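#onboarding

Welcome to the new folks! Below is a worked example of what a typical request in this channel looks like: someone posts a single protein sequence, and someone else replies with the predicted structure as tokens. Don't worry about understanding the tokens yet, we'll cover that in week two.

Example request:
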Amino acid sequence: MRIGIFVSETWGPASALDEIRDRTRHAEAMGFASAWVPYLPWSLDALTSMQAAGEVTEAIEIGSAVIPTYFFHPLALARQTATTQAAIGRPIHLGIGCSNPAVVAMHGLPFDRPARHVREYLEVLEAAMQTGAKPAGEREQAGFVQFEGEFFALGSIYGTPAVRPPGSILVGALGPHMLRVAGTCSDGVIATWSDEGAIEREIVPPVRAAARAAGRSDPRIAGVVAVAIVPRARTADVRAAAQAEFAFYEQSMPYQRVVQASDAEAIGEICVIGDEEEVARRLRGFRDAGMTDFLAAPFAVEGADWNSTAEKLARIEL
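Example response:
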């Protein structure tokens, strides 16, 4: 299992670009496999943040977790992805997802048949990336993308200079229909608020089965988990703080479903909180459950900020 870390704030105040650059440089120097940015109502644009992170580093993987599909046309996102990759000189890892009904409704958009929407979105995205910089003839500057579905019906000129496929496309998924889409049509899944039991029972089996049925290679199973590394004596207090911070997810779909499917009795217990020994034990549990990419989202509390948690997490050996 590879360990990645969010370099843009996920729970607290939004990160400025300079903070994202600094954190990504530190993450690469500390040996993290990947650096991730969210797309949140209070955050910077994810693709711009990924470009900022990639321009100050050399090899660390850069990813998004996750960009809402309802807010971006797939042809536009394909172009932004290609442009970002050209700017940093290496592939990015594109995490996309339908978000949730409340966030989509805030933007005045209908949240209709999300699994079907994401399936079609992925098909258009793949068609655009395959067309990319393949001109239709000697005089043409672009190819042509055509698609006819329930959500997308298009016939469009499309081209991007120096296009290259992304490192991977992952789907934020928790429910059975979306997990099937992730396995069938993408390179894997990004699950949030899923403990070891939920990963093993609810996430891994349907994604792997769908990937096998579609003839795809073994999928990446990534999970976003809040992490705070603190002295053992403070564990209970920090877990209580996490419970107070995140309790509303227990009543919010689709997170409610996966929290109920977890072994943990409350969302604060899903968070990875404790000293280095306890965090190492939890990480081994996620690995054994089938997770391939642990995406740590540092939870800042008194005595544990992004830097201290990142430095201690980087030293843990599995």
